[in-house]
Amino acid sequence: MAFSDNNPNSGNTLTSYEKLKATEKYLAKMKDVLSTMDEISRIKRANGDKDADSDEIGGYKRSSVVKLVSELEKQREMLLSAIEREKNEAVAAKEKELSVKEKEIEELKAREAARTEKDKSELLSKKEAELAEKERELMRLRAERAAHEEKLSREQKEKQEAIRARDEALKAKEEALKMQAALALREQELATLAPTKNDNAVTSFRKGDNALAIEGLYTGLSMDIEKMRDDILQEMKYSYKQDISIYDDLAEKIESIKTIDANTLEEGLKPLQVLNTLDEKLNALQTVDYDCIVEKVSEKLTETKIDYDVLAERVAALMTSYAENAISPKMQLSAIEQRLEEMQYALSGIMSVKQMPEFRKLDTMVEEYLRTLSYDTIPDILILSDEIRKKANRHIAGGNTLRGEGMLADLGARLRNVALGGYGALVVIEDTIKTHSLPKTLSDEAFAEFKEACAELERSPAVCGDELVGKVVRTKKALLNDVDLAQFDNDTMGELLEIFAEIPAGELPSETTIVNIGALKKELMSFNLSYFVELEPVAAQPEKTDNVDTQAILEAISNIKIPEAVAIVSQPVAAAKEPTESKLEEVKKDSPNVRVKKARVLRPAVSSKDNKTEKVVQPLRVVRRSIKASEENPDALSKALVGQVAQKIANSMIK
């Protein structure tokens, strides 16, 4: 079976090598078919199939395949011999062609040698003539060069003299300009140091104008006093209601103690009925040792740790302080002096942030980032900024508000210079915040959306869709919530969309256009580090003062234990002989009919400012009040009255 009978592509156009390659390929396929037939026969024979030795397997005849394989092998041998024969013929043709070329080369060499001898003499004479001509030309050029050098030397001297004169004129002009600039700067400094009506108190102090400074302080303090007066009146309103409630509870406690004391006395007088028949024994009774009773009362009072003198002073202060509804001029002056002292302390505590080691280190890091634009310094900047923020808040909480707020302002100014953007910067910031547990200032969801939008914009081609650009602008606005930055991004987006519209459909943009598009995309993804550091100052904590702990007073009174009643004989023997019934009636008549009420749960006193900021249950607030005895108000609870109440309470505790 010839190869040309099975391959329609065979013919004069195919070389012997191509025919051999196709034959080997077809032969390999037939051998695979034959091996497959052998494998099928083996499997059938293993399974006990009767048709295992059949000539037809899988739709092919084994004999045909074997015959085709043998024919292909013969054809391959023929092609190999043909290829070998063609190689030998090609080598012989090459050798013959090479011998012909060698003969031609020898003939050319002989002709060239004959022609060379003839041309040498002609060439030599021609070269000599050219050499003489070149020597004459060289002499002429040397003369021209000497004349030109002489001319250049004269021109150079003239130029040097002109340059020297010009330099002297410029130097004189520069000195005059420096003098004018120094005079202008001095005039500007004098104008800056000149006091004006619009300067505040601190600026006036710095400029040396004490009159304007004091006037500014007085104006500011007068406004603060008006606001302070309103706040104090509001606070007094709630504190008055609270203290009235405290006094009501205190009165109820005292009345309940008096009721218990009367009931105990009534129970103690019942044994007097038996004493009517024991008059003689009563005469033999000893008198009551009041000194001993006083000692026992003192011991009880010491055990309970209640200082009734202090209690009386505090109750008197609580009741008399509300008689003064206006701030006296002396108190106003004291408040103004205190305010001036606080301002002086704050001014004396001001320290330039450039002198602080933290800010020096931060400036170095920022300069390193601006020089290299490497994100490796971003984590260190964020960590150091958080430390500076904590230190500033400690100054504010300690009362040095001016210094703390100044540190936060300078920190924000430095962080705004650290401009970065893109998916890589967001990943670095997110990893730093998570790793070092820094406070989060932005929403996690908005941060993730903006990061995803930046990643899509970076992966997109140069001419991307309008929707992707709008997504980046929307997510950035939702994350940073900066109106000015959002307006700037909208302008950038409009410029970018105009460039997209100018590009013809189906054409690639130019290299300059691609560079401009990349720059605008970077602007859309850019931001600064100030958004990721909390720069809002904390609220200053109020100073601790010695307060009247009214809650402790109420708890101490409620914990007073009334001892068991004992028989008290405080009347002489003649009074003991009176009828028992009359004494009992007097006791019932004198004892008030008061029920012991449950202790009130006091509402905390909150100001109008507190109501606006928080609506949670607050602890009982205590207010500092000055202790003043008001003799002009007869209805006020005096110290003597409270002392009498305390004495009655002590009498009820006598064993």
Account of the 3D structure:
Keywords: Coiled coil. It is built from 23 helices and four strands. By secondary structure, the protein is mostly helical. A two-stranded antiparallel ribbon has the order 1-2. A two-stranded antiparallel sheet has the order 3-4. The chain is flat and about 170 Å long. The relative contact order is 0.08. The longest helix is centred in the first third of the chain and has 132 residues. 71% of the residues lie in helices and 2% in strands. The N terminus is likely disordered. A hairpin with a 2-residue loop joins β1 and β2. It has three domains: 191 residues, no CATH class; 147 residues, no CATH class; 197 residues, no CATH class.
Concise account of the structure shown:
Keywords: Coiled coil. With about 650 residues, the protein is an all-alpha fold.
Which features characterize this protein?
single chain; 655 residues; mainly alpha; two-stranded antiparallel ribbon; 23 helices; 4 strands; 71% helix; flat; disordered N terminus
Write the layout of secondary structure elements.
Blueprint: H1 3-6, H2 16-46, E1 56-57, E2 60-61, H3 62-193, H4 201-207, H5 210-269, H6 272-275, H7 279-283, H8 290-304, H9 308-320, H10 329-348, H11 357-372, H12 378-397, H13 401-416, E3 419-421, H14 423-435, H15 444-459, H16 466-480, H17 483-502, H18 511-524, E4 526-528, H19 550-558, H20 573-576, H21 580-590, H22 608-613, H23 639-652
Antiparallel strand pairs: 1-2, 3-4
Percentage of residues in DSSP E strands: under 5%
Per DSSP E runs of 2 or more residues, the count of β-strands stands at 4
Give the proportion of residues in helices: over 70%
Structural class: mainly alpha
Query: How many separate helices?
Result: 23
The value of Rg in angstroms is: 57 Å
* Biggest sheet features: 2 strands, antiparallel
* Overall pLDDT metric: 72
Give the number of domains: 3
Biggest sheet, spatial arrangement of strands:
1-2
| Elements, N to C (H/E) | HHEEHHHHHHHHHHHEHHHHHEHHHHH
Question: What form results from the Cα inertia axes?
Answer: flat
Distance between the termini: 141 Å
Instruction: List segments where confidence is low: pLDDT < 50 over at least 5 consecutive residues.
Output: 1-11, 322-327, 543-549, 560-577, 591-638
Keywords: Coiled coil
